[in-house]
Amino acid sequence: MQRSDRLGVMAALDRPTYNVPLISILAAGFVLRLLFIGSEGFHNDVAAFESWTLTLRDNPPWMFYAKSGFADYPPGYFVILWLLSKVYGLAVFMLGGSEAAHGWALLRTFVKMPAIVMDLVNSALLYAIVRRYAPPAVALLAAGFLALNPAAIYVSSYWGQVDSVSWGLILVALWCVLRSGDDPAKTIPRLTWAWLAFGMSILIKPQGATIGLLLLAYPFATHDVAARARRLRGTLCGLGAAAALALGISLLFHPAADVVGWLFGRYLFGSNVYQYNSVNAFNLYALVRHMWQPDSMPLSLLGIPVGPLSLWGVLLVIGATALIVGRYLQRADDRALLEGAMLCALAFFVLATRMHERYLYGAFLLSMPLIAFGRTGLVSSIILSVTMYLNLAYSFYYQSVMENHVTGVDATNLWPLISHPAALANVSLFFWSRRPCPPSRRRRPRGGICRPARGSVQDRIRASLRVCAPSSTARAAGSAHARALLS
Prior knowledge:
- The chain contains 21 helices and 6 strands.
- By secondary structure, the protein is mainly alpha-helical.
- The strands form 3 sheets. The protein has a two-stranded parallel ribbon with strand order 1-4. Strands 2-3 form a two-stranded antiparallel sheet.
- The longest helix has 30 residues, at 375-404.
- The chain is globular, with a radius of gyration of 24 Å.
C-alpha cells in the first residue's frame, strides 16, 4: 500500500463522525419550536417567568424572594433565570433600546429558551440510552418521538413551562447510572454526577423525588460484592455532592443560619398553594370525582370516614413506590431501572392529589427509553403523548372559561367525554405497566454481537438477523488492528 493511501485511511479512522440523521431530527425539532416561541402561551406562567427574570436582573439573588411578590418554586430554577437575566440585560443593551421598544418579545424568547434547548438535549439523551439496547433506527425513532412530539412542543414552546428541564435532569441522572457499570474506574464519578443531576432536578421541581429511591436501591441491585462496594461509595459521594449543591444554592438566596428550614419551607409553601384533589390533571381523582374539590374532604369506606384524600394520596404513592423499587431489586437489570423510573413518575401523577396537568410530563418523557425494549414502550409513549396533549388543551380551555366568565358550564368538569376516558387511560396504563415482565433474554458479549439465550427457533432467527453496534472495547481493538496493518 502506498504511503499516501495509508495516510488517507489513517485520516479516515481519526476523522470525527457525525450522526447526520440525529442532527437533522434535532434541527427539525428546533425549527418547529421556533414557530411557537412568540405565542402568549399560558400567559399566567409566562408572565411569572418574565417577572422573575426582571427581578433577578435588577436585584441580587438573596433579595429575590422578598422582591418578587409571589414565587412558589424552590430556588433551583431561579439560578438559571438569574444567569439568563444577565444575558438578557446584555442583549437589550447591545440592541440599544428598552424592553418596551420591542414589545417584550425578546424577553419572552429568553424565558422560553431553556425548556426548548432541554427538549433537544433530552432527545439526544434518548438516542444515547436507547442505542445501548437497540439498533440505530430504533434509537432515532425514540429521539424523533420527543423532538417532533406535539405534546412536548406544546409544553415548552407554546405553553412556556419548564418541565423538560427538571425531568430532563432526571433523564441525565438515569443515563449516568446506566453508564456507571461500563467502566469500574468511572463508577464513582458517574454516580456522583447522577446524584448532582437528580439534586438539581429536585431543586427546580420536586415531582421526581420518588425516583431517588431507585437511585438509593441501585447499589443493592447486584450480586457482585466489588461492584456493590463501588456503587455504595459512588452513592455516598453523590449524596454528599447533592447536599452541598442544595446548600450552596439555598445560601445564595437565603444566606442565613436557618437555611435548611427555609428550603423545607419553600417546598411546603409550594405544595399548599393548590389544595385540591386534581388541578385539571387527568388522574385517579378526575376519574371518580369532579376536579378542583378540596383534598381535605374525608374518604369514606362503607360510610365510615377513614381520613382525608390528601393523606390517602400520599399513602398510595408510598405503597406504589415501595412495590416498584422492590420489583427493581428483584430483577436488578437496566430495563427494570428504566421501567421503575417511568412507573414512579406515573404513580405520583395518578395517585397523589394536588396534581397539575403538566405533572404527567415525567412519565411521558421516561416512557420513551422503553421504546428500546419493544412494542410495549412505544404503546406507552403514544398513550401518554395523547393524554398529555388533551390535558394541556383542557387546561387552556379552563383558563379561557375562568377569565371570560363563561356561563352555563361546570368549570370542574368541562370535557367529561374527553377527561374521563383520558384519566381512565392514564390509570389503566399505570396498573397495566406494573404487570410482571421477564428480563431481557439478550446478552451482549465482549465483542458486541448479540446472541440469544436458549429459546425458541424464532428468538434465534431474530437474534441472528440483529447485529449490535460493537462495544467501545471492540472499536478500540479494531482501530488498533487497522493501524497495525497500515504500519
